[in-house]
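Submission sheet (multi-component)
Chains listed below:
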Amino acid sequence: MKLLVTSALPYANGEIHLGHLAGAYLPADIYVKYHRLKGTDVIFICGSDEHGVPITIAAQRAGISPKELVDYYHPLIKQSFEKFGIEFDNYSRTSLSLHYQTVQNFFLQIYRRGFITPKTTSQLYCPRCKMFLADRYVEGACPSCGNNEARGDQCEQCGKWLEPFELIDPRCKICGMTPERRETVHWFFRLSQFETNLRTWLASKTHWKPNVMRFCEGWLKRGLVDRPITRDLSWGVPVPLPEAKGKVFYVWFDAPIGYISATQDWAESLGKPDLWKDYWFNPQTKLVHFIGKDNIVFHAIVWPAMLMAHDEFILPSEIPANEFLNLEGAKLSTSRNRAIWLSDYLSQYPPDPLRYALAINLPENRDVDFTWADFHSRNNNELADILGNFINRVAVFIKRYYCGKIPQLTGTDPDSENVIKMAQEIVLRIEGLIEGFQIKDAAREMMNLAAIGNRYFDHSAPWRTFSADRAQCDRTMAVCARLISMLEIITYPFLPFTSRKIAKMLHLGKRSWHDALNPVVPSELGETEILFQKLPEEIIIQERSKLESGSDNNVKNKKEPSMISIEEFKKIDLRVALVKSAERIPGTSKLLKLIIDLGKEERQIVAGIGEAYSPEAVVGKQVVVVVNLQPATIRGVESFGMLLAAVDGKQVALIRPDQDVTPGTTVT
RNA sequence: GGUGGCGUAGCUCAGCUGGCAGAGCAGUGGAAUCAUAAUCCACGGGUCAGGGGUUCGACUCCCUUCGCCACCA
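Outcome: structure written.
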């Protein structure tokens, strides 16, 4: 058997956040790591989804081309995954020319087989942006309630569903221009032809998760309609028909074909360009798509129909779709920046605690809530206190009482036998759970093994038997060492970084999953270290307030490319200023009220440097100030400008000119 | 608006085909001292969102109201 595992292609208009991880990436990675250990022939394929209107819009807003936008995000996404320990065999992207060819060939094949038909439709077109506008990119007054901000698909105020043409005074959301109605030809995929085949195929998937099955049943009951697969855009995979000049494929058509092209890309990079066929053309291959629930219809209905229409590739075997992750009791929202971004997380914490906190509470059955309090408690009370402490107490005991020599297992007793048996049962249970996509329960079982270790250690009381019954004490430690050796293997899919540390501690080499049932135990302990650092309780409050400030400020697309043009930079008026006076603002530790001299004028500004600088220390110094910043009132004190300083955590350093200049001098 | 899902202990979640309500964390009491004051033992705690129905028996099946979510048009 071969396994071809995919995770939904992340859309390259933003970074990865916790919702993505919990839905499609972490469970897939755990599943794949387990299978790699087991020796299964498995490949794990993913890549950035780089086409579609949202990307063209985001690019336009940032003043760059779509290609520049995806070139910015693709590597960021890729790196975040790597740092988090998500190990794809290939993380590709849909802007590759290889992908273009694959999509076009795929299309031509289903076109030849008669599953594509052209149809003339009427759409709104913006003459200034020179493009047809998707529903969501038209705004206007709602014909039923008069709300002036109704979107082309729905009026948010009265909830009425709309057609873009129904809007009164429609305007293009990008440039504000009034769009006109134009006729255009689009090509449709004849999804309706596949109703019977899909029904039969789905009926055989008796073991699929009920959430997936119910979605599909609902769709089939309603009847399938043909879907347009082309758009009038310049960004995307061109439609390879002479009469379709200037049209590209709809992103939902090209993206899943990315699973195929990314596999081809993988094969090429290995120097075996035909290797991908061993998977995609092989009926012995199980194709597993990890996705979030928003993608179910697509992966369980449309994509299989596309594959049936093409008729050469295998169909999905498993679609373990997850529900959604909420944050602190509310929906996460990227547009309001109410999200936890993976790169932000990784800049502060190690990957494994998050992998664990997410794995133990995956949205497998329903939407689930991620809270920082839970993360904190999982890290401190479970990873550090149960798992970390078990390993540590055994290691320290062996070091201190046995000079680091691990006693070998000789003789036995009912307790020890029982513990080993329970541990072996856990290994077998985890196997069944992971293979049945019950990752959450599997993670619980993993922690359970450490808890069993603690219980055994306590009951055996080696600190007493060491002098009273040495043989018994030897046995206890031998069994504990054995449990740690097992833990090294079974933690690997969930906590790969920790597992590697344990391996170093026990000088363990490469092993397979099955070795966990009867693991080797070395005779000597290596360097030991604390596996999990406890986190202070303050982080709960800090992280929570970060979330709230993100959404309150209504910062839109915080994560847009940081590239700006020289013109934008020139808008910032930077000047050298001399600090005339400074005083603390009562009731704050960080804030200073400064009067600065800008040559022609004096100004009052508030600066958050009070922890690093006393008022006396800044008076008489030259500093750099943004003078054309909107005035703000901070703690009741007005501020007309902003002081520049280098800030790294608590360390704050003022930016000052290398030599004194006339106050008011421009900085460029 | 249509379709589907969810609502279970203070918190986060399990409960397959109806048969005495579960886990982890938090809480309370005790034991132990090898360990990152980490562990172990015991205990308390729920009108299973509200209402109605089917049944000997309903968290589970049916209807309905409320709240939340997803998808579709």
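Remark: Residues 4 and 19 of chain A are 23 Å apart (CA to CA).
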